[in-house]
User: Fold these one by one.
Assistant:
Number 1:
Amino acid sequence: MVLEPPYAGGVIALTTRHGKERALGRVFAVGLGARLQLCDQDTDQLGTFSGEIPRLQDAAATCRSKALLGMQATGLPLGLASEASFGPHPAMPMLPVGQELLLFLDQERDLCVLEQRLEWRTNYSHTLLEPHDSPDAWLRQVGFPTHGVIARPAEPQPGVLFKGLQCRAELTEALARCRRSDPDGRVWLETDMRAHCNPTRMRSIRRLGVALVRRLRSPCPKCGTPGWGLLDTKPGLPCSDCGTATELTLSEIWGCQQCGARREQSRRDGRLQADPGQCPWCNP
Ligand SMILES: [Zn+2]
Ligand SMILES: [Zn+2]
């Protein structure tokens, strides 16, 4: 069934101060025929990056407030906002992950559609430099200078914080100032995760935009509202050797975020069995 995509010719308020229109503008223009109108409201009041992954509900609420802010400022009935947090993986603390959210609001339909992904490809990291440590190995690891970094004295000092460092000369200068301000000459370095300083994040946001547009183009088979798509997965794919249920996805739960309709269906990739290497019985 091919339908005229909803929101063709529409204008959507995008609340961002970090250049996310570069990642999303074309995706929404090509996929929905809609235009994004930038709203650079200060959203710092809604909280910024923290070192831990908040519960999805909290992150979604922040994202919703951001989108509403842009809709109020522009007077548009459609809004879009994104939110991310980074930290250690809840089950594997050595592994950094990002949680990326993109949320769409349609006031006229009273509709809220959320797209999210756990992002394994992230450069999220931090390090503490002793007075004579070189930052070079760490900088290579986090993709400097295409990816920005933040520097401050190990013991925070008012007014001595350098964000968005993306060139060697600026970084050297910032490191020297931080060392002078810290009682022990130590410097705290961390990756700057704001989208405009972080091409890896920009790519994540773009991928999320593609997924959200695909979802908005799919009407719910029950109520017709845009936004039909994957909501959850069910583990239990059987081992090809012994049939034991594994942690791998057995089926997908698709649904409507508006009327609550749900449908369980088999994996889109058609896979019916798990490799014995991933079986808790064959390969404990
Ligand atoms: Zn098995
Ligand atoms: Zn529905």
Number 2:
Amino acid sequence: MNLIHFDIYQQLLKEKSGLVLSTDKSYLLESRLSPIAKKWNFETLDAMTIALQGVPDQKLVVDIVEAMTTNETSFFRDTRPFDMFKDHVMKYMKEARSDKKSLRIWCAAASSGQEPYTLAMILKELEPQMPGWRFDIVATDISHDILDQARQGIYSQFEVQRGMPITLLMKYFTQVEEKWHISQDIKNMVKYDYFNLLDSMSALGQFDIIFCRNVLIYFDQPTKGAVLDKMARQITPDGFLFLGGAETVIGLTDNFKAVPDQRGLYGIPTGPHFAA
Ligand SMILES: C[S@@+](CC[C@H](N)C(=O)[O-])C[C@H]1O[C@@H](n2cnc3c(N)ncnc32)[C@H](O)[C@@H]1O
């Protein structure tokens, strides 16, 4: 792909999804967009690129953005955040929300559902200790296709093998031929919706806990900062934000601060998780 054509995709992806495409990733464009060109009956990828310079069909733009997103995820990804969620965050919330007995959790880049379903399974396991509690998990993503997959809750042997304790697999999944179907009970705990992190978050309401893991890495510094600032307005003053292992708030925003001794966990600096 020539540099001018590369530039067109670079700008389009940045504007529509925040994704920063470095020149060393041009091979990704070729391999991921050739099937889209074929689907849209363009003779070549170049022909599709030329069409994009006019007034492109917005459905084509959506297909291009979806094709370029990286949806890598797994159940209990990195283990530690989910131990922290169970042992630290939920321990705090059990006390702090003992009057209300309800929690709102947002998975902001949910991909094919493994992250929100992991949270749902952990909360289901906690139910006997928290009778009468209501847990709402809102799971969003920019990719409609990946959201459809997440809603189905059907996974391959390989996907369930990665990180999932066998006891939970046996308890919350049913094997149907080669695939594993997550139980309706767990599915009912998660509500999926399309949401682009570049958009205004004010209509989403307040959350006690936000998971925004392994998506900021694809954005440039100003976009990362802007997303974090918007999230700070959607989180309760004593809420918790989880970021991915390669992500941080340092140098991006003063509206979140790392919770001491809990790697990858952040809170509002004026909140109760920090000594005055
Ligand atoms: C690598 S996955 C991370 C999934 C999960 N959070 C995890 O850590 O395992 C990144 C997800 O972010 C989504 N994404 C990319 N840009 C986005 C945007 N601007 N708004 C919302 N989601 C976005 C992608 O579609 C993809 O599903």
